[in-house]
Amino acid sequence: MAVINSLVWVAIALGAIWTLFPFYWAAVTSLKRRGDLFGNKWMPFVSFDPSLDAWRSLFGVPQLGTAMWHSMVVSVAAATLATAISVPAGYAIARCPFPGRMRIGTMFAFMALRLMPPVALATPYLLLTLQLGIRDTLLGLVLINSTINAPLAIIILSGVFLDVPGQLEEASWVDGSTRFGSFAKILLPLVAPAVAVSWILCFAFTWNEAMLASALSFTDARTMPELIIATGGGGGVNFQAASTRSLTVMIFPLIASLFTQRYLVRGLSLGAVKG
Questions:
Q1: Confidence of residue 235 (pLDDT cuts 50, 70, 90)
Q2: 3-class DSSP state for residue 100?
Q3: pTM for this predicted structure
Q4: Residue 55, SS3?
Q5: Residue 1 vs residues 5, 8, 262: alpha-carbon distances, Å
Q6: What does the pLDDT look like over 25-43, one tens digit per residue?
Q7: Could you tell me the domains of the chain?
């Protein structure tokens, strides 16, 4: 037993190192001067003298505050819109009668939409936004990201609604409640953690989305991932700028995860244990 416990702790330590090392490397790179970037220099004060020049340059970037604000607005709005669409859609899939295996086919269709690579959607979305006049706008990014992430939220919520016994609604109907009343007063409070998880996942995927953002925006709707991509150019990659911007873009998701951790645990465990 002691050997097994030791192996478990070793596995946990290796997993933690594997997960946290990229953050450490980004932090170390952000403290290096250009001459210290290459070579076996990964210990500050030991193998190189740290410098805050990259961080000073970061706060001198005029697009930083605007890009951070754009990312926040687009992520919150897209996650909210996708979740608002997915709640009634998931309920309809779970409760409406489907002939044969059409319900399963519908779920596979949503899964296929979510697994489709963004590069396959870049050209259609580019033409669509041009026709609608919403290219390089926050509205265009909100609509596209909510469309991309809604299938994921629908898959999560439909499964959670299926786990809620239908007898709860039927009992409320006997007492005179309407379908909407039972949905709003009984089902929604029960699945609220799953709704929160869906919103958080949609927020995270939108916050990290870079390819479509770079294809559909130039100046007026630039987001933080696009600002990170801009560190590469004809003269090579500015590793210090990429590191500082990458670490900065992590701030809001880390804060959000700290405040929503209990909802994530409850939402992801819904339906895991059946009595």
A1: low
A2: coil
A3: 0.83
A4: helix
A5: 6, 11, 31
A6: 888 888 888 878 777 777 8
A7: 63-269 (1.10.3720.10)
